[in-house]
Amino acid sequence: MAHHTLTPRQYLILALVALCAPLGDTCLSRGMTQLPPIALAHPATLVAAVFTPWIAVGIALLIGFFASYLTALSWADLTFVLPATAFGNVIVALLSRFWLHESISMQRWIGIALITIGVSFVANGPSLTERPQPAGEPVPEEQTQ
Amino acid sequence: MTLLPVTAPHPGFWTATAMIAAIILSSTAGEVLTAAAMKSIGDLDLIRAHSGLKGAIRAVLTCPLFFAGVFFLAAAFFALLFALNHMDLSLVAPASASLTLVTNAIAAKLFLHENVDRRRWTAAVLVCIGVYFLAH
Question: Which residues on chain B are in Cβ contact (under 8 Å) with A117?
């Protein structure tokens, strides 16, 4: 049985999953808070919001996230990939601390520690649930390690 | 930045709960369906190595489960946009992101039959609390 360890390329894809999602969400948040309130009765205004600059950049980043997320899901479990997504928040918080010199409260440091410990729990385990090959189905080609 | 955003009055408790529940439910359904679709397609890196990028894109776009997943993910996206327009990011982001981790672990166990062992449950709970603290 393969142990389902990841290749450097697969770690790179997980890094893209982690980075693109929080950066994209930040752009969306910035774009949406600059818009006037949108009512459910006028859904067209929500669609028009898509074409404002911050939201457009946010969507571009989220498309990058989605492509790498789909690739990751094709060779790893959902419960393995999702903590990687959450780890992106830690990277963004650390970037804001050491690059933008923003202060991080004790509560946020605790959050960073908890996410890091949680992700290390998952990362030390197998990336994919082992399943017996159903009879009659072609055996997929072995993945090169 | 000196821009002053125009924000809506804050919604009540039940309205806020409904907005966050809509994000969590649609996001969980979308992620589980997408994960099921990608598992049924197989390793995209291998498909791309054999059939090129077009082959990989074709494999994804010809999978009906993928579109079911995208439908719910799109619903979650618009639910998030709508909620961000009415509530602060400091409430929407931690509540939806952290709770989605737990609902996804439950859904992955139930529907995808993933081996969510003690290690993964611990990770889901730690990351859930961590995301709440970090984003709050």
Answer: 126, 130
